[in-house]
Amino acid sequence: MPNSCDSPERPFSNFLQDKFMKAIRRYTIVAIISLFICSAEAFGQQPKTAQEWAKQAATQFSTLNYDGALQSASTCLQLFPQAAGCYGIRGYVFLEKKEFAAALADFSKAIELVPGQARYFAGRGDVYLKQERLAEALADYNKAISLDARLADAYLGRSQTYCNSDKLDLAAADEKKVLELGGKIYKNCVAMRESEARRVAMVQAYLASEAYKLGVAEFSKGNKAKAVESFTKAIGHQPKEFQAYFYRGMALFDLDKFDEAAADFKRVAELNSKLPELYYYRGALAIKKNDRDTAITELSKAIELNAQFVQALNVRGMTYVDKGQPAQAVADFTKVLTLQPSGETLYRRGHAYFTMRDFDNAILDMNKLIEANPKVAEPYNIRAASYCQLGKKDLAQADEKKVQELGGKVESPCR
Q1: What is the DSSP string of 68-96?
Q2: Backbone angles phi and psi of 312, in degrees to 5
Q3: CA angle, 139 then 142 then 143, to 5°
């Protein structure tokens, strides 16, 4: 009985279609080909015929020798330009080498020569899929399935196309069909999407972190405009991280871009409403707009979240003074003095006492300041005015004289 591989009755194109295209499995992470070829007796010698070159190309492809497979398939085509199977093998080689234009040309030529072979359409679909030409990939996979409803590779390619098109139900149905036909799913659509999402998130988090760190460095050096650029990049990578918005808002505030700063602080409030510093800056923005009521509301939120927020207490105290509410100011300054005593806050409280006509306490605060630093004029001025209001003109005039000696100016001399 003659060897079927050498039978002259079988057309060469059919031989390649029946034998070698069975050896070409679709493109996956690792190219795997199950060979259904004839006797390997000729493999030990240099191929002579187109058929032998085709056999060698398929074997080389299956062992990942893509350069060898490319050369063998090309030699096959030189000897027999109508060998659709060699175009198919070479198409897969080009696909592996990411030479998509060449792969597309070879698969299209194979289809032209043998339009009824499902694997050629599946191969070209793989190329389109790699090029993200999803509509064309889907059309080729559909054609492959219409020609061979049991071609698992076509369902697998179509499932990936559906996956990339966000048609997850259709992708899952095709994945199920692949398994029914004995094919393999290396990673299903849901797993791929989750994996890709994690990868993208990690990359974006890294890029955001680097941009954020650069922004903080520029901010610390006083380069507020450059800081804004870096924080904007960080936000581009991670638009739901409040720190970059907050820092950018502070930088914009320092650049007197108050409306833009307000927009960033609003976004921070949406992302993290429990940040005391947020309300402190919103209060500062309100002060810039002479909206003292809003300023006090915002500063009060900051203090509710952090009862020891010295800056917020100080600014709220000063705002109460500006609003003509010295008693509330005294309460804030007194709290600050228990947390972080300073001459500046003591002076502010003494001034508030004076404003609310509590002259005795105003004098007590000024006494402490004068004792700590007797060469500063302003405490003498407040104390002189307080003495005058209490009818102690001699003491008032003595302090007024001291103010002048220190280079200060007495606003309302006691008469």
Answers
A1: HHHHHHHHHHHH-TT-HHHHHHHHHHHHH
A2: -65, -40
A3: 85
Per-residue pLDDT, 22: 34
**CB neighbours of 22 closer than 8 A, spacing ≥ 6?**
34, 36
Measured distance CA(363)–CA(309) in Å, rounded? 27
**Do the beta carbons of residue 399 and residue 384 sit within 8 Å?**
yes
Q: Superfamily assignment of 4-187 in CATH? A: Tetratricopeptide repeat domain (1.25.40.10)
3-state secondary structure 108-135: HHHHHHCCCCHHHHHHHHHHHHHCCCHH
Which two three-digit tokens encode residue 396?
A: 């008032």
| Entry field: residues in the chain | 415
Residue 198 scores a pLDDT above 60: yes
The one-letter code for the residue type at 315 is: V
Contact 85, 21 (CB under 8 A): yes
Residue 415 is predicted with a pLDDT of 87
CATH of domain 188-273: 1.25.40.10
Q: Supply the Cα-derived Rg of the chain in whole angstroms.
A: 41
343, 372 Cβ separation under 8 angstroms = yes
Residue with tokens 């279609």: 17
Half-sphere exposure of 15 (CA within 13 A, CB side): 21
pTM metric for this prediction:
0.64
Tell me the one-letter amino acid at 274.
K
For residue 138, give the 3-state DSSP assignment.
Answer: helix
Q: Where are the alpha helices (DSSP H) in 323-358?
A: 326-339, 343-355
d(CA 154, CA 27): 11
In angstroms, the CA 264 to CA 260 distance is 6
- Please tell me the distance from the alpha carbon of residue 295 to that of residue 324, in angstroms, as a whole number: 14
- Which residue ranges does the chain devote to CATH 1.25.40.10? 4-187, 188-273
Residue pointed to by tokens 């921070």: 268
Residue bearing tokens 């502010």: 348
Exposed e or buried b per residue across 150-170, where buried means at least 16 C-beta atoms within 10 angstroms of its C-beta: ebbbbbbbbbbbbbbeebeeb
Judge whether residue 6 has pLDDT over 60.
Answer: no
**CA–CA dist 170, 141 (Å, integer):** 13
Which pLDDT score is estimated for 186? 81
Any idea what the Cα angle at residue 133 is, between residues 156 and 129, rounded to 5°? Answer: 25
Contact 120, 143 (CB under 8 A): no
Tell me, what's the pLDDT at 294?
97
